[in-house]
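Please describe what follows:
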Amino acid sequence: MGKIYGYVRVSARDQNEDRQMIALSELHVPKENIFLDKQSGKDFQRPQYQRLLKRLEQNDLLYIKSIDRLGRNYEEIIEQWRIISKVRQADIVVIDMPLLDTRKGKDLMGTFLSDVVLQVLSFVAENERGNIRQRQAEGIAAAKARGVKFGRPPAPLPANFHDVYRRWVAGKLTNEEAARECGMPTASFRYRAKAYQNAAL
């Protein structure tokens, strides 16, 4: 029996990994052998996953909570599964899906069933990633339709902006001079002046 490892992934820095960590601790995975990435599952260019892959050796055992924690790209999940189980010759267990346990059914039928389940779940994981993107786009479009503004609110205009703007429109100041008087970059002055003009129309 080799070493026992765990892999944890959450999609963003504000997501909580506790559920996955608890599942791994219940399986007695040593804390120092748990690798955690806080980034998207769209590909496998993740620092901790790459470190884990280099550590895995023959007869080691890797636990992951669910297949989408490994990744959300169908073809890459299949490829990484092959690298871990065939190239590194380590075992993988997906906690939420007991059929995905390479320690069991190493005969032809067991391998076939495991491969079929893996392909189905990998497809579902990638499909869900597409659904997430679509829901985000629809949510943003709906919010914009309600008048919700995205991004940081613009900084307040300097107190002298109206006077500078009036002289700039009259041709008494160049872009650079107007921007300097307002204490902002030239491009920012032109952008704010255009917005100011549109608001006045």
